[in-house]
Specification:
Largest sheet: none
Order of helices and strands: HHHHHHHHHHHHH
Strand content: under 5%
Subcellular location: Cell inner membrane
Family: Belongs to the GSP F family.
Number of helices: 13
Helix content: over 70%
Structural class: mainly alpha
Oligomer: single chain
Shape: elongated
CATH superfamily: Type II secretion system (T2SS), domain F
Radius of gyration: 27 Å
Number of strands: 0
Pfam family, one: T2SSF
Keywords: Cell inner membrane, Cell membrane, Membrane, Transmembrane, Transmembrane helix
Number of domains: 1
CATH topology: Receptor-associated Protein
CATH architecture: Up-down Bundle
InterPro entries: GspF/PilC (IPR003004), T2SS_GspF_dom (IPR018076), T2SS_GspF_sf (IPR042094)
CATH class: Mainly Alpha
Amino acid sequence: GMSLGTSMEKYVSIFGEAYVASVSAGEEAGVLEEILSKLATNLENENEFQGKVKGAMIYPTIVIVGMLVVMVIMMIFVIPKLTSLYADFGTAKMPAITQGLMTVSNWMAKLWFLFPILFLLPTIILKIGAKNPVFNLKKDKFFLRLPIAGKLSQMTILASTCRTLSMLLTAGIPLVEALRIVGTVSGNEVYKKAYGDIAQKVQKGFGISVSFENTNVFPVIVTQMVATGEATGKLDEVLLKVASYFSVEAEQAVAALTAAIEPLIMIVLGIGVGFLVVAVVMPIYNLTSSF
């Protein structure tokens, strides 16, 4: 005999606070069917957007990780075997490039146990720091300031939060509560704090657009569009347009980034392979030339 919203509240970790609140509001207003349809559309759009962004980054990530793995294997296992082969040449007869490669390889072979630690250390630090709100805030501020990744992250967050806020307002959730919920589900401490501050200011009687502008974390286009929505009384529709705008911007940014990374990877890979070939083959060439 429990309502759907009340039942979903017991599984808020699965459904998410925004969806639970929307269903509860839809039940109270008698428009549950309409709200569920909008939730389904929102979820479909969100999954499609996230899928495009993540999918575009898979290939460059795999190539970069593969390059690093091959490099480490070469330096730790292959080059040391060649070192014994070159031992009879004498360091004086070996080119400087080969001597340098062998020195680095010997160092990496002796300290190989540090590589798993260095690989896992960032994950451990982030996992421990996740329990500290101050650490999370500084971490998110740092990532948002990164030249390319930070801009992409901001566009992704804005697309997601504006779409969610539009959905909540359409469902009839009061603006202050909707802002608080959006901040909670934003996944970023900077924007969580920003939406929380906006909610407090709106509750005190400040204008919505002014409250957005005073946070200093939203682009001008967002504050201008929010001002338009506030003036026309169609904030939910305007926010949906903002979400669509940033979704397209993020997709285009990812496509451009991928297009730029691929040739750069090929160049770096070519330089690396050329360096290894020269360093490995040159001593053999010098030896055969001396006969």
